[in-house]
Design a protein that fits this description.
CATH architecture of the largest domain: Orthogonal Bundle
CATH superfamily of the largest domain: Winged helix-like DNA-binding domain superfamily/Winged helix DNA-binding domain
Number of strands: 6
CATH class of the largest domain: Mainly Alpha
Helix content: 55-70%
Number of domains: 2
CATH topology of the largest domain: Arc Repressor Mutant, subunit A
Number of helices: 8
Structural class: alpha+beta
Strand order of the largest sheet: 1-3-2
Length: about 200
Amino acid sequence: MHDENIFKMSELADTEIKDIPTINILLCYLVYKIGKPVDTEHLYEIAISTGVINYFSYLDSVDYLTKNGLLVVDKNGDGEQFVITPKGTACAKELKKYAPKSYRDQLVLAALRYFARLKYEQELKIEYIPLDNGYYTHIRCLDTNNDLMDLKLFAPDLSQAKLIGEKIMLDPSGFYGKIIELALSNEEVTYDLTDN
């Protein structure tokens, strides 16, 4: 009896959706909320990163959505994109109430974070340069014509160098802003020689 209760509780704690029709609604809703065609690999990474949808369910859902005309695959110069059709838009608007709001919100938030990260990666380049006694975390803030900042920070090992890079990537503009603020507020140190 005790083991049976634990099993039931673990099933309830599982946040992964196994119902393909619900995943179909969620994916239509996600592409609809993004508001533009989504690269096939981007949709995959967003959906899988949440832990709400597993790989096999994702493939089953995308197969269903494309075969039934809710999403179409558009080939462009860079690759393939999913484009939502009027039928898919109707699914997203009219059936969204059948997919839990918490899952809808989780997927949309994951998409916002994912696209923000892509934007940051275009504006900020981070590489890890090995040294004899550690690593440099090399950070470059890019602009259209010039580097806004080119900075190397020392770390004693690769894991710490990567930690620095990951923390910077959480808010690259904030990091850049703090560096500029520190530089502009820096003042000359004055020494009082009369105390000696």
